Amino acid sequence: MKLADNEIIACLRDGRISITPSPAETAINGASVDLRLGPKFRVFSMHTGSHIDLGTSRAEINEAIERTMSDEITLSEDEVFYLHPGELALGATLERVELAPDICGSINGRSSLARLGLMVHSTAHFVDPGWRGQLVLEFYNCGRLPLGMRPGMSVCAIAFEPLSSAATRHYGARQDAKYAGQTGATASRFGSERS
């Protein structure tokens, strides 16, 4: 059962949920909190590799990811990131999120953006209990026009669910957690040793 706004506010007060910078009161909805777009992005370079073979060795997958993924792009407050039709990009939330071991989350894109063709985090939207870090978002433009995204714009919402008890193997306690403490638009670590 998802937490209601008053329960989210109580969890923010007692530290079971931490969002930094703190959300404005208007960002807390009936059962979610709006998150904003950070200034960092990564894109796939089509001219540096022909494919990524997901069935090959971890070393080859990592090499292909490094070859096809751009360096992190950081925009200033007044710059715009344009996502063209058919393009995929990674971005990150402006906010850093921390969850207690007995709370998990789920990220949902905004309907108003989807109606313009912007798919925001349509897969892997689960946020593990014990998570700490910025949330990396996958953006895909399925529309027909380029879409401009500005740092600081409201881009998604996170909802929270309590677990029946605290997880013992929560994300923050795992030595093999690939994305623990991530900042910015972290590239895929599909082929890494950690899971």
Plain-language structure description:
With 195 residues, the protein is mainly β. It has a single domain, classed as Deoxyuridine 5'-Triphosphate Nucleotidohydrolase, Chain A. 13% of the residues lie in helices and 34% in strands. Strands 1, 2, 3, 5, 6, 7, 8, 9 and 11 form a 9-stranded antiparallel β-sheet that branches. It has a two-stranded antiparallel ribbon with strand order 4-10. It starts with a helix and ends in a 33-residue tail after the last strand. The model has no long low-confidence stretch (mean pLDDT 85).
Compact summary:
The chain has three helices and eleven strands.
Label this structure with key terms.
11 strands, 195 residues, Deoxyuridine 5'-Triphosphate Nucleotidohydrolase, Chain A, two-stranded antiparallel ribbon
What layout of secondary structure does this protein have?
Blueprint: H1 5-14, E1 17-20, E2 33-43, H2 58-68, E3 73-74, E4 81-83, E5 88-99, E6 103-109, H3 111-114, E7 118-120, E8 126-127, E9 132-141, E10 147-149, E11 154-162
Antiparallel strand pairs: 1-5, 2-3, 2-5, 2-11, 4-10, 5-9, 6-8, 6-11, 7-9
CATH class: Mainly Beta
Overall geometry: globular
User: So, CATH architecture?
Assistant: Distorted Sandwich
Which homologous superfamily in CATH is the superfamily? Deoxyuridine triphosphatase (dUTPase)
Number of strands: 11
Q: Structural class from helices and strands?
A: mainly beta
| Distance linking N and C termini | 27 Å
Total of DSSP H or I helical runs spanning 4+ residues: 3
